[in-house]
Amino acid sequence: MTAPEMTDLPTPRADDVVAHYGRLVSSLCWRMTRDEDAAREAAQEVWVAVLEGLPSFRGESRLSTWIYTITRRVVGRFAATQRTYDTRFLSAFFEGADEPQAPQGDADHALWVRSMCDQCLCGIAQCLEPETRLAYLLRDVAELGYDDIADVLELRPDAARQMVSRARRKLNRFLSGHCSLADPAGPCRCRMRRHVATVDLPAEYARVRKTALRARVFRESEQVLPPRDYWLELSQAPA
């Protein structure tokens, strides 16, 4: 799931903007905070600011750049309170001997596996400093160009490119030795590997990967793992 740029309009309709960018803003908030409550609160704050500012939006910048700049300002405050983990700590956690136990009863096992994998991927992203993490997500998940990322992060385009490149190398080094979703042929040492195999998630990633130019497990996860749209949840909640 990505959100390509909407057709330029003098004043985009609020409903169209929310439908177009809602899931991706929620995903950014989740992967930046790794805390469901914080992500939901951040997404709500983003959309309040976007919807309040939309009537005065005159297209001085791309609509997506404007929305992601608001997202950066909001989610940056939340992410600043979260711990950044080094890869040694993450390796010890993901290779731990304690295999998570699936819920009993009528719980949907496949949904539980997907949710756990989503949490794992989100946790892995915490090895990146917040600004680097956001740069990576804007490039490989939102698929923004480097000029747009530079505008959002207030950097030079070459600095944004270097930041994304470093983030990719760090994440790929970790994922290639720990995650069968990123590298089905590699040595998966994740505590969830048995559960992942039972629902054959690697096969789903392989199908998605056939349509992509290159393997990017975070982007692919938007199509395979449970979606999030916090603003939609809030708007549909009973009064």
Describe the secondary structure blueprint for this structure:
Elements: H1 14-33, H2 36-53, H3 63-79, H4 87-94, H5 109-124, H6 130-140, H7 146-153, H8 157-176, H9 193-199, H10 201-209, H11 217-224, H12 230-236
Helix pairs in contact: 1-2, 1-3, 2-3, 3-6, 3-7, 5-9, 6-8, 7-8, 10-11
Structural class: mainly alpha
H and E string: HHHHHHHHHHHH
Question: Care to count the β-strands?
Answer: 0
Radius of gyration: 18 Å
Give the percentage of residues in beta strands. Answer: under 5%
Helix percent band: 55-70%
What are the low-pLDDT stretches, counting only 5+ consecutive residues below 50? none
Give the rounded overall mean pLDDT.
Answer: 86
Q: How large is the count of helical segments?
A: 12
What distance lies between the first and last C-alpha atoms, to the nearest angstrom? 30 Å
Largest sheet: none
How would you describe the shape? globular
